Amino acid sequence: MIVGIGLDVVETDRLAGALSGEGADAFQTRVFTPGELAACADRHDRVQALAARFAAKEACLKALGAGLFEAALLQVEIVPQKGGKGAPELRLTGALAERARRRRVRSVHVSLTHEPGVAAAVVILEGTRTRAPSGARSRRGTTTWTLEPLAQGTW
Asked: Is pTM beyond 0.85 here?
């Protein structure tokens, strides 16, 4: 069952300014993990790749129902799949990992895309559902549903 969806679009020129202007180093260390910066360092499309990662971080916050002021962007990391092939994966730490556990998220899907001028990402959170305890009713009189995790562990 889908428990959260987030979508974000980033103007790459705006991000390019933040990455090269005054305070660029502070911005990079506040937004991107060392692994994300290293993964994009030698790319010819570095700005677009980082913009797509920024969009994924924002999309993840939206899917979790968290605001920028509630969690640091460093708590969301875009990592390559093991072996370096295939779609990227999303790793959560800190307060965002705890929020995902509370929302009983069991699977996270992320898709990144970019073209000159624009980058975008979508994040889909999945969980499982189980009937609420007996007697739980919605306004329409139907039984409500809650989520139940399939697995626990590090994100």
From this structure: no
